[in-house]
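## retry 2 of 3
previous attempt timed out at serialization; input unchanged, resubmitting
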Amino acid sequence: MSYKARLDFVAKGLPIILESAQGFWDAALQLKDSPREASVLEGFAEEEAAKALILVDLVRCPPAKVSTRVGRIVGKIFYDHLARLIYAKAQRWRPASIAQLQDYVDHERQGHYLEGALGEYILPNWALYSRESTMYADIEVYEDEKPLWSAPGKWPGTGFHMKPVSLEVAEALDAVGAFTRAGVQATADIWGQVDFIDTQGLSIAQELTRSLAARLDAEGLVKEAAAEHHVRVFYDRWQWPMYNLEFGKIDVPLEDLKAAQEANLRAEFGCDHGDP
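## retry succeeded, writing output
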């Protein structure tokens, strides 16, 4: 697509994605007596909203760079479950720079990690495992290599639901007019001036956010339904552009995990695993 055609296309899609996410969230609220099923729908709402934020980052990408990044953003992030889950979680983070934001993302995309006081347990990526184990009955294999059936997780029916932060951010952007065609253009014009790739951080992001807010207001794009909550989320929760970050799952070799376990034991007891 040409640059303009891409902005046209994204502007048409953002309200569709948001409506889909809100539909999942509204349905989850109706399942007070079915917490597992409600949790599945909440997860769908979270991921759908993250898709909108990914496309907004495509809009925020500098025009001179977007053609070299669009394939990865759409092909490897937009359609990847782990990437969407990380995108959603990232709206709560407060890094000091884009480089630190990548460090946070790297921590979340490890294929396996150590858990326990001494790292005695090797666990799969928690975001993916939580998603899959909630949705499906499945077969799991532990270190003894014996297959076991895993029933979908159960939760107490507290009736308490917390809206996914990714959905809150998407709704805030919609409320201030950023999901309109003119709002998409304003976002591209303002955020596209800076390429967030390394040391860029809070001060420049705040300046661009304020500039965008002023333009959306000046062009009369802010919706009447916009409330103080939307403005607060727009300023405080919307994460910096992540179009240049890597989101693919990092495969951690088993020998590296076992070596880390041995190192933990030596640090704690001064001996190798299996020594008296």
